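User: Need the bound-state model for fe (ii) ion:
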Amino acid sequence: MGCKVLKIGQISDIHIGEDENLVQGIDVRSNFLKSLHSKSMEDIDLLVLSGDLANEDGEPGAYRFISEQVKGLKVPVLVIPGNHDRLDTMSKFFDLEGKIHGDKCYFKHEIADRTLFFLDSACGTVSRDQLDWLKVEATKIQGEIFLFMHHPPCFCGHRFMDTKYSLKNKEEVQAVFAEIPNLTHIFCGHYHSHFELEMGRQKVHVAPSTQMQIDSHAPHFILKSSAPEWMTVEIGENFVETAVYLR
Ligand SMILES: [Fe+2]
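Assistant: Bound-state model below.
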């Protein structure tokens, strides 16, 4: 019997501030709510918030607001930290029980006969401990595995982000990923732009941001749009499809 299609909502780079003040002139709270309450999210099985929930440096007000907004959802909500998050503060508002190892948040989640892995790249690298853990855990899984992390593990062709803020140990990470035959799809954020890339046998999907999109052609920061964008992922028996939405 085939597996049911698993639909995941991925909201990334929300960048909520401590209070209701606009963030760089953008109503990031409203942007987040537009994504959360959009029709595209009505039939999801799982919601992933893939880092940079907080705007600058782990503002508690950001986690308070987001956790209150998602607490009524009927589906699991999984969070991973980005470079603007603080794990110690995040853990006061989200259930990270059993997911924090040392000062990193990494874990796997089984749902609808699939195994999803989540890594912590908040400090700009993926630690060796996490890579070793992933390698071992992946061998225990029969079928494909799917991975979420905040930073894309490769350059994406985004001039500003590739130059200034790409994952620092991407060569090490890529080498480990290449040794994991059943790792097929990697879902990220961080770049404030949508990309779909081939990385060897793996496909890298980079979700846009609900805060704003950054122009990928300019070598410095140029705002492309302050409209919220988000992604859904559908994983079927023989396919993975993503869709990007905006308001
Ligand atoms: Fe980020």
